[in-house]
Amino acid sequence: MAGVIAGGPSLPAGPALYRFSVEEYHRLVEAGGLFAGKRVELLEGMVVAKVTHNPPHDSTVQSIDELVAGLLPAGWCKRCQLAVTLTDSEPEPDLCVARGDRRTYRHRHPGPPDIGLVIEVADTSLAYDRVDKGRAYARAGIVEYWIGESR
């Protein structure tokens, strides 16, 4: 039976779970240990498996990516399926519009003050994107968060 940890992602009920800080998560990833080769992201301190992409999802992401590219004002860049750093999370949204250019984020990921828009494309993940990711983005102060369904 599934339960919800208060303020955290929806997870199975059971023993207490360990929450990672963003810094601990970075060290684990850099060490190439526990999560090497795994498609994971940090959400509210919990390491969660990323949803597998299917053709409708990828096609929708590509369409949005192409559309947004032509609408960006000077001084903004789009980042497709790349990490953003929040206080206790490091999700990899399908698309993010951030201040700066590709060189701006050579040594760090964009954070809330840098981000103008986050977009997630939902296929099987609509509830997760609305509730869990939506809560994480809202707590971080992300003003514009859109969810699109792949078709």
Keywords:
tt1808, chain A; 26% helix; single chain; 8 strands; 25% strand; 151 residues; alpha+beta; four-stranded mixed β-sheet
Structure description:
This protein has 151 residues and is α+β, with helices and mostly antiparallel strands. The protein has a single domain (2-149), classed as tt1808, chain A (Alpha-Beta Complex). The chain has helices spanning 22-31, 55-69, 126-140, and strands spanning 2-4, 10-12, 40-43, 46-49, 76-80, 95-99, 115-122, 145-149.
Q: What is the H level of CATH, i.e. the homologous superfamily? A: tt1808, chain A
Question: What's the end-to-end separation, in Å?
Answer: 30 Å
Question: At the third CATH level, what is the topology name?
Answer: tt1808, chain A
* Strand order in the largest sheet: 5-6-7-8
Radius of gyration equals 15 Å
How does the helix and strand content classify structurally?
alpha+beta
**Percent helix range:** 25-40%
Principal-axis shape: globular
> What would you say the CATH architecture is?
Alpha-Beta Complex
Question: Average pLDDT across residues?
Answer: 88
Largest sheet: 4 strands, mixed
Indicate the proportion of strand residues.
Answer: 15-25%
Task: Work out the count of structural domains.
Answer: 1
Question: Any chance you could write out the topology, listing elements then pairs?
Answer:
Elements (H helix, E strand, L loop, with lengths): L1 E3 L5 E3 L9 H10 L8 E4 L2 E4 L5 H15 L6 E5 L14 E5 L15 E8 L3 H15 L4 E5 L2
Parallel strand pairs: 7-8
Antiparallel strand pairs: 1-2, 3-4, 5-6, 6-7
